[in-house]
Automatic annotation (TrEMBL):
Top-rank lineage group of the source organism: Bacteria
Encoding gene, per UniProt annotation: gmk
CDD domains: GMPK
Protein name: Guanylate kinase
Organism whose genome encodes this protein: Bacillus timonensis
EC numbers, comma separated: 2.7.4.8
Binding site for ATP: G12, P13, S14, G15, V16, G17, K18, G19
SUPFAM superfamilies assigned to the protein according to its UniProt record, in alphabetical order: P-loop containing nucleoside triphosphate hydrolases
Amino acid sequence: MKERGLLIVLSGPSGVGKGTVRKAIFSQPDTKFQYSISMTTRKPREGEVDGVDYFFKSKEEFEELIQNDKLLEWAEYVGNYYGTPIDYVESTLQEGKDVFLEIEVQGALQVRKAFPEGLFIFLAPPSLKELKNRIVTRGTETDDLILNRMKVAKEEIEMMDAYDYVVENDQVELACDRINAIVTAEHCRRDRVARRYKQMLEVDF
């Protein structure tokens, strides 16, 4: 019997480095995760590619997907929609492959309700001061938007109790190592492997 894949959800406040850590994990030669690309209505940042980093959609296109229940989760964050297409996620899990989601906190909480068996990892900044510095360094935000993001970030950090693990993103390489170690441990959990072994015991020698 093929073991169902693991849904891995990486989430955390804006500016914590979710995209950077995800890209670093997927640049590793032994990575076997399937990345589920999120959809968003925000404008692409410099270097971002449609269909690689995000599926960039208009507000009208996104709202049509919401109405047709084609999203596993969706959220509105700082005036833009973000969401995850559901069909790709479910079919990939059934194939026995691990699906990796990098999404905002609101979206992660929705996924938790739909997939409580998933693995939820909260990526945390070393400090709020460092988080603000990372957002400012982007050079893409106005002062008002930076203040808004910091206010939201504080609220999101308070939601970490909804997650299974917390990984501090002090150094990208170390954060990747911690995430990979967590996934390996989860695949070895008794409740994930017991069914396969019980079926094995039913076979006559």
